Amino acid sequence: MKINVTRSSIPPLAEYIDDIRELWDTRWLTNMGIKHKTLETMLKEHLGVNSLSLTSSGHLALEICLQAFELKGEVITTPFTFASTTHAIVRMGLTPIFCDIDHETYVIDANKIESMITEHTCAILPVHVYGNMCDVEKIADIAERYNLKVIYDAAHAFGVKYKGKGVGTFGDASMFSFHATKVFNTIEGGAVCSSDPEIITRIAMLKNFGITKQDTVGYIGTNAKMNEFCAAMGICNLRHINEEIAKRKFIFHAYSTRLSDVIGLSIPSIQPHTVPNYAYYPIIINEREFGIDRDELAAALAEKNIFVRKYFYPLTNSFGCYKDLYSAEDTPVAHNISQRVLALPIYADLTEGDVDRVCDAIIAARKQRFL
Ligand SMILES: *Cc1c(COP(=O)(O)O)cnc(C)c1O
């Protein structure tokens, strides 16, 4: 039996059918219908944020968020992220400036931000990688002193809390992704939340072609509206989110129990003052002690029908489309981690037996080298 790195959470079929039944009567399939409104309300409550706008994807949420703040110039970010983060900056006519990451949490190294600020810097776009919280306090302090916007890529961090506050309450705005592979999904989808309702109002217009009111188009917007079927999937999935995260938590700890004393592996830890969402289980391979490198381990697992993910590899600053402008050598910690990290399978339905199979295969791959 194949074990994939992830498997989407879905509600019981009957529950979803019940939820979409009224769409057959109303024929209101998209454009801020009842499901869209309901999900926005539910998510504001769940995430503990004042204002939020749903979008058709996390990526478009990020693009229109950058547009809404009318930014120009340089944005300090990291290359240890999904293609979306860097692409959104560039596609909105801004220049990414790559800061290195912290070697334990893989988020932006807040101590290195200040030295990268120039007269052209307009914003900081950090990523809560694997659901790990960025140093929101230090980043807020820097942003205030230099008058910069802070927009978080919280695609990994749905439901995470820090010191009792929802992850989406930090910075000027946060983007969430509700892609099928994320902790909470709407099939495809995303959202922006902000403490500034005016920004959210503007985003609501930008996602609908910039139409400000009937017969008035105030912005050069795009089409990033979430449709009713995706919103209904979100409503159903949100009803089950606490159980889903509890199951992930069990899997997370089952891995840690089995892998904590394997020499040559670093396992993830829980940050202080944080309620995590157990979105990912990244391990770091120390080749000298483990005997084989990350790529060899991934290949050994694939032979046993276990599919892990080199996440994040390659760094965005070494993508073909950016390689003439940037280099992975500019961010040595991120470069090093991206060559040694492996995200293990984790999802709500993964069984304890599956965890054992993955761990047995990892331990066997190491043993074989030291035979
Ligand atoms: C998934 C993801 C995105 C993009 O979200 P989509 O909903 O797939 O468009 C952006 N940033 C990070 C870090 C992600 O993991």
Q: Could you explain how this protein is built, in words?
A:
By secondary structure, the chain is of the alpha/beta class. It is built from twelve helices and 15 strands. It has helices at residues 13-26, 34-47, 58-68, 83-91, 136-146, 197-206, 228-239, 241-259, 287-290, 294-303, 332-340, 352-370, and strands at residues 51-55, 74-77, 95-98, 121-125, 149-153, 161-162, 165-166, 173-177, 190-194, 211-213, 216-217, 265-266, 274-275, 281-285, 341-344. The strands form four sheets. A seven-stranded mixed beta sheet has the order 1-9-8-5-4-2-3, with helices on both faces. Helix 4 links the parallel strand 2 and strand 3 (95-98). Helix 8 (241-259) runs parallel beside helix 12 (352-370). The longest helix has 19 residues, at 241-259. The two termini are 27 Å apart. 48% of the residues are buried. The model has no long low-confidence stretch (mean pLDDT 97).
Q: How far from one another are the termini?
A: 27 Å
**What is the mean pLDDT?**
97
Strand order of the largest sheet: 1-9-8-5-4-2-3
**Number of helical runs?**
12
Mind telling me the C-alpha Rg? 21 Å
SSE inventory with pairings:
Layout lengths: L12 H14 L7 H14 L3 E5 L2 H11 L5 E4 L5 H9 L3 E4 L22 E5 L10 H11 L2 E5 L7 E2 L2 E2 L6 E5 L12 E5 L2 H10 L4 E3 L2 E2 L10 H12 L1 H19 L5 E2 L7 E2 L5 E5 L1 H4 L3 H10 L28 H9 E4 L7 H19 L1
Parallel strand pairs: 2-3, 2-4, 4-5, 5-8
Antiparallel strand pairs: 1-9, 6-7, 6-13, 8-9, 10-11, 12-14, 14-15
Pyridoxal-5'-phosphate binds next to helix 3 and helix 4.
Overview in brief:
The chain has helices at 13-26, 34-47, 58-68, 83-91, 136-146, 197-206, 228-239, 241-259, 287-290, 294-303, 332-340, 352-370, and strands at 51-55, 74-77, 95-98, 121-125, 149-153, 161-162, 165-166, 173-177, 190-194, 211-213, 216-217, 265-266, 274-275, 281-285, 341-344. With 371 residues, the chain is α/β, with parallel strands linked by helices. The strands form 4 sheets. Strands 1-9-8-5-4-2-3 form a 7-stranded mixed sheet, sandwiched between helices. Strands 7-6-13 form a 3-stranded antiparallel sheet, with no helix packed on it. A 3-stranded antiparallel sheet has the order 12-14-15.
